[in-house]
Design brief:
The chain contains six helices and ten strands; from the N terminus they run βββαββαβαααβαβββ. With 230 residues, it is an alpha/beta fold. The strands form two sheets. A six-stranded mixed sheet has the order 6-7-8-3-9-10, with helices on both faces. The protein has a four-stranded antiparallel sheet with strand order 2-1-4-5. The structure holds adenosine-5'-diphosphate (2 copies). One of its GO terms (molecular function) is ATP binding.
Length: 230
């Protein structure tokens, strides 16, 4: 079974201005080892898709399956899905959102969700992850002492702490310069290729198109087969 499978996913919002069809019947499979880019204009439903696929919100209709198991649907209990969310999905957002009074390695260790791991072991694991992202020398620094690119790589390390089979990233390079952005994208590329993770990245950076195994274009809440050139 695909790591992620979404079936006819729809999300409507009732607003003062009427019904907004943020997502309108999206179906998509992402396999292990696949790096998928999601492109599309602002307001086309990309973030909504990621929130639903990440079990952070429920769809109005449709289903989300992880590794062949149906986990989310219109009436799903999101609190009950917290365990699945934390152990099996790694999230990266535009802002690193690190805890300011914890060091880089402590931030990464916090992402670890293995019940019987000691704090000391968690730090060893965190250092190893940071080293793999060329951040060994920053492990004991507070976030404020790190550059934007370094902070984002710490956020990536935190997302990888549990070795989740699925990584979801929403504009992870938007706040970074070209070199740093490329570096973060290369990390996703490597995680997909070497660890076999399914990685879904929302971006509108056309420079990253050649890194993806597959590109999906969104328009008006739907997957668009014949996209405009962005
Ligand atoms: P994108 O990520 O592609 O910019 P979004 O998924 O954020 O698009 O939004 C898709 C549409 O849904 C937009 O029209 C947006 O205004 C609307 N939308 C998203 N979230 C909400 C919400 N909580 N309430 C009302 N409308 C929303
Ligand atoms: P927590 O257990 O910390 O409450 P959740 O299991 O609810 O986290 O969510 C998983 C991850 O998604 C966490 O890293 C959390 O910071 C992030 N997250 C949750 N909701 C949102 C949101 N609305 N916007 C951005 N990030 C979010």
């Amino acid at each position: 079974a695909p790591v992620l499978s979404v079936r006819s996913l729809t999300r409507h919002y009732a607003t003062g201005a009427g019904l907004v069809r943020a997502l309108d019947g999206v179906s998509l499979d992402v396999a292990a080892g696949e790096l998928v880019g999601i492109f599309g204009p602002s307001g086309s439903g990309k973030s909504t898709f990621l929130m639903l696929a990440g079990l952070l919100e429920n769809p109005t209709s449709g289903e989300v399956w992880l590794a062949g198991e149906r986990v989310s649907h219109a009436g799903a209990d999101l609190d009950a899905l917290r365990e699945i969310r934390r152990k099996r999905i790694g999230f990266v957002f535009q802002k690193a959102n690190l805890i300011p009074f914890l060091s880089a390695v402590e931030n990464v260790a916090l992402g670890l969700e293995i019940a019987d791991v000691t704090p000391a072991d968690a730090r060893v694991h965190g250092r190893r992850l940071l080293a793999a992202l060329d951040l060994a020398h920053r492990a004991d620094s507070l976030p404020a002492k790190l550059s934007g690119g370094e902070q984002q790589r710490v956020a990536v390390a935190r997302a990888l702490a549990n070795a989740p089979p699925l990584i979801l990233a929403d504009e992870p390079t938007a706040a970074l310069d070209r070199v740093r952005g490329r570096q973060v994208m290369e990390i996703f590329r490597r995680i997909a290729a070497t660890r076999g993770a399914a990685v879904v990245v929302i971006t509108h950076d056309p420079r990253s198109t050649n890194l993806f195994d597959r590109i999906v274009h969104f328009e008006d809440g739907r997957v668009c087969e014949r996209p405009q050139i962005y």
